[in-house]
Amino acid sequence: MDITLFTPEESPFFQSTQQSNGQAAIDMHSNNQPQNSHTSTSRSSDSGVLPSASGKWASRLLKECAQAISEKDSSKIHQLLWMLNELASPYGDCDQKLASYFLQALFCKATESGQRCYKTLTSVAEKSHSFDSARKLILKFQEVSPWMTFGHVASNGAILEALEGETKLHIIDISNTLCTQWPTLLEALATRNDDTPHLKLTVVVTTSTVKSVMKEVGQRMEKFARLMGVPFEFNAIMGLNHLAELTKEVLGVQEDEAIVVNCIGALRRVEVEERGAVIQMFQSLRPRVVTIVEEEADLSSSRDDFVKCFEECLRFYTLYFEMLEESFVPTSNERLMLERDCSRSIVRVLACDDEKSSEEDCERRERGSQWSERLKEAFSRVGFSDDVVDDVKALLKRYKAGWALVLPQGDHDDSGIYLTWKEEPVLWASAWKP
Amino acid sequence: MMSEDGIPVPSTVGGFVQELNSNPNPNPNSIPLKRKRSLPGTPDPDAEVIALSPKSLMATNRFLCEICNKGFQRDQNLQLHRRGHNLPWKLKQRTNKEVRKKVYVCPEKSCVHHDPSRALGDLTGIKKHFSRKHGEKKWKCEKCSKKYAVQSDWKAHSKICGTREYKCDCGTLFSRKDSFITHRAFCDALAEENARFTSVSAVNQNFKHDLINGTISNTQLAGIPQLPSAFHPEFAGSESVSNLIADGQKPKLPLWLDNAAQLRQIGITNNSNAYLASLPELVPNASMSNMFGSTSQMQWLNKYPEASFTSADLTISSLPRVLKEEQENKGNLSESGVTLYPNNNQNQQTGPGHMSATALLQKAAQIGSTRSNPSFNGTAFGLMSTSHSHVSNSRNEVQKNFRQQNQAGNMNELLNSFPSSTLNTTVGDGSMLVNSNSSSFLQNTKNLEHWLMSNNGKHDQHVPAGKHHASSNEVERSLTRDFLGVGGDASRPFLQQELAKFASMGSAMDLSHYTSGHH
Known about the structure:
The complex is a heterodimer of chains A (434) and B (519).
Chain A: H1 12-16, H2 18-32, H3 37-43, H4 57-71, H5 74-87, H6 94-111, H7 114-128, H8 131-144, H9 146-162, E1 168-175, H10 182-192, E2 198-204, H11 208-211, H12 214-228, E3 232-237, H13 248-251, E4 258-264, H14 275-284, E5 289-295, H15 306-327, H16 333-351, H17 368-375, E6 380-382, H18 386-397, E7 403-406, E8 417-421, E9 424-433
Parallel strand pairs in A: 1-2, 1-4, 2-3, 4-5
Antiparallel strand pairs in A: 5-9, 6-9, 7-8, 8-9
Helix pairs in contact in A: 2-4, 4-5, 4-6, 4-15, 5-6, 6-15, 6-16, 7-16, 8-9, 8-16, 9-10, 9-18, 10-12, 15-16
Chain B: H1 13-19, E1 48-51, H2 54-58, E2 63-64, E3 71-72, H3 75-84, E4 102-105, H4 123-134, E5 139-140, E6 147-148, H5 151-160, E7 166-167, E8 173-174, H6 177-186, H7 192-198, H8 207-213, H9 218-222, H10 226-237, H11 239-246, H12 254-266, H13 271-277, H14 283-291, H15 294-303, H16 309-318, H17 320-337, H18 356-367, H19 377-384, H20 388-404, H21 411-416, H22 440-444, H23 446-453, H24 493-503
Parallel strand pairs in B: 1-4
Antiparallel strand pairs in B: 2-3, 5-6, 7-8
Helix pairs in contact in B: 7-14, 7-17, 8-18, 13-15, 14-15, 14-17, 15-18, 16-19
Domain C2H2-type (chain B): 63-85
InterPro entries (chain B): C2CH-3rd_BIRD-IDD, C2CH-4th_BIRD-IDD, C2H2-2nd_BIRD-IDD, IDD1-16, Znf_C2H2_sf, Znf_C2H2_type
GO molecular function, one term (chain B): zinc ion binding
């Protein structure tokens, strides 16, 4: 093995940054030992002079590289990129995976090729997605992790309570969940009491990969609603480039309907400057309740500071990847696909800053408190009732350990409820009324 | 008949009647004092109707001790207590006055049981009814958050909550209701059209009711068995199935074919089971089996209890065309089915009644075998299994090559060698580059290419032909793309510079071959 490459004294370049890189180099090796056999065998070091593992080599290297990029220190950039490339693998352990996907973004940032890379990734993804693969992926994910179902249960609970007694419901679903949220709602509507209301579901699709499968999804929903005995109507709005362009007419909103706006993971895709407009648009629809679910990360306030943004992005995705690793079986293909889906998002956030895209795919997340500030302009918060909270808790019990529900503290119940993974908040769910 | 001491002892039915002459209950009763339940819906016309207010109805301690005001639920308990006060206690004896039967009405005016003709005969019963229907639900199940007003209901539920398994038509088992529902909505075995066939008008079952209570009696199933025989002509008329039965040679359905052949080998004699058996693993199969009615389905389930999720997965993901065809077939069958069941309005959209059959089948399935025997998951996992040894080998190669630092070619060559050929490998292939004379940079960047092509990953059965540029690095199929994921067309000045930098990174790294400009 080429341990010689990493020993500081042999390389002139290392000398300038000997402290950090040399140390990092040594640490890298040590960390490769205990990990998955399929890659670590190749990295089994001959050197033997390594100090004990000190954990997250990927995060260290990546942050250094990000720092180097922001300082435009090209020699260091090269060095680190090269090192990361050596060690990264999308099939390895968490560190290796993170290294792999973030390396791609860093490289694109350094070479200013983010937009092109993103386009390529997107088109590749589009080609490979089909209804069956998407369905399988989503259902499996929901089975092993409450990442999606948390938001579904909380939102459905809020919706049912807000629309109690209504006979004509119109739910505007702005999400990419392939309508997996709605079967349980349909069942609840059917069984809740004897007079089942009429439900109209209008799905607004924002990602391109989902558009192609929506037709099939719609058919399934219609069938299922028939099965449940719920009068149902389905519409899908695709090809919309900007959410703010939605109007009552486009959505088919009728006067006698009780409107619900359900927004799962979609607000973050709106360009930061347009978010206020989108919220105004929601208000114009005069909904009874607006349910928002978003991932908890702040990638928008730091968007002018590359390193900060990078660190936050890395923090979030580290949690996410770790969660995926622990939730799925090691050989899971679904997990691999979810990880790959992240790569696009990461490239978009880190390497595509100044470029306006035709679609809304900005992916700049904000924290719950930040969204709350925006939403307060037009709405006031509706707390989740005890029943809904109990439902969420019961949901979390059905999954592996590590998940918890955190309720807002104190009187300034300004935010919603948080899903935490190993005590780190990862998702935020809230409900709003005009 | 009176005994000698004048105390009437009812000993016969006649005597009984004499004692309680207002009770039309015909049950002959050898235990004279025991009250029997009336038949439901047959209230005693002469019974005394008691209407308690909600407060007194729900009062738990109606019997009060006059001395200390302690409350008791039963008179007997109060009497026992009174003995403690040295008071004479009054044993409530059966008096020889006629004891009129008491019936109770619900105090809630809007309730059906408010009317004396729908009164309930049991005080405890009316209390529970009032709680359930009009009371506050104070008891909540921990697992599923379901609420109950009556504690005994809650207890009973808690015992069985989580132990019940839900079974989809496709054979998959679920312990959680919500994941079952979501799966069901997207399952290819969504048997809605088929439900029309099997919903017999005699079975008047509320689907919602079923779903909540999960009670289904076998009598309902009994109404269905005529279906299979009645069905055969219709079924045989449909294209694909008849082809299957005949020779299974239908070109569009290769897998079905195989299964049919396999199962014939197993020697399935029962004709109806043959239909079912010929499609054991296939998701659409379930829908067909539904048409044969639940009894057949139960048989089928017993025979082929492989309810493994993986087999369902395998079928779902690998037979998109087959499934589509199944959809069409279902369409065909539904039309032909109308003649059999003219009652079923195909356009019927609302109302729980006509959906009952699915519920029936569901329940039947639950009552039936719930074994899950994942005997077919070999192939499924085969698709997903990783063979990482290749990866590690290749990496070893990489390192070696890198070390040796041959003139593997210049950077130009490298970049040219990443045409847009798709990354064929996935984990399953293990076909990572095992390169003999590659440039190390190519090897090292294979991961970089991975990202770019990653989404094709495993589904990549279509490696585009002609994208395989010849290069010194040519290895099998898993060539990689250009470092940036595009076919190396743009000029990126930085890259050139960067390559130069790489070149100067140090002799130990021996990157001399990177010096040339790129394409």
